[in-house]
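stage 2 :: seqdesign
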């Protein structure tokens, strides 16, 4: 189910940024766009490039990107059907932004590789400690 989008972006100076980010928000859209910078790809090629992405989520994300005009879907009339995805001219215009995100991510990879405990470290939390906690 698609997220509701704002109908007006003239509410304040930051709304243009909000509008742009709304097109590539979420965990997978920018990753898909990044891989499509290399050229046209079929569904299963994209799936192999992004292993954590489920087929259903890939379908939804590609559909959203197509609706927003960032991705072009080309269907070839053959058996079995052949479908290819590529960046539209509008999607290609995001290349400098996606490349800047890649460079920033590479430069700050240490932020993502830090140990993130699944439970909070109770010893460092203020307040009484549970009985038997050591």
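stage 2 :: out
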């Amino acid at each position: 189910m698609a997220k509701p989008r704002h109908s007006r972006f003239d509410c304040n100076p930051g709304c243009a940024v909000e509008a742009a980010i709304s097109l590539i928000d979420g965990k997978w859209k920018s990753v898909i766009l990044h891989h499509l910078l290399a050229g046209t790809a079929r569904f299963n090629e994209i799936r192999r490039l992004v292993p954590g992405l489920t087929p259903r989520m890939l379908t939804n994300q590609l559909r959203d990107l197509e609706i927003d005009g960032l991705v072009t879907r080309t269907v070839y009339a053959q058996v079995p059907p052949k479908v290819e995805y590529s960046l539209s001219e509008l999607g290609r215009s995001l290349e400098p932004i996606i490349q800047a995100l890649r460079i920033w991510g590479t430069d700050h990879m240490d932020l993502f590789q830090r140990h993130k405990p699944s439970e909070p470290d109770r010893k460092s939390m203020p307040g009484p400690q549970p009985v038997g906690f050591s």
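stage 3 :: structure notes
- The mean pLDDT is 83.
- The radius of gyration is 20 Å.
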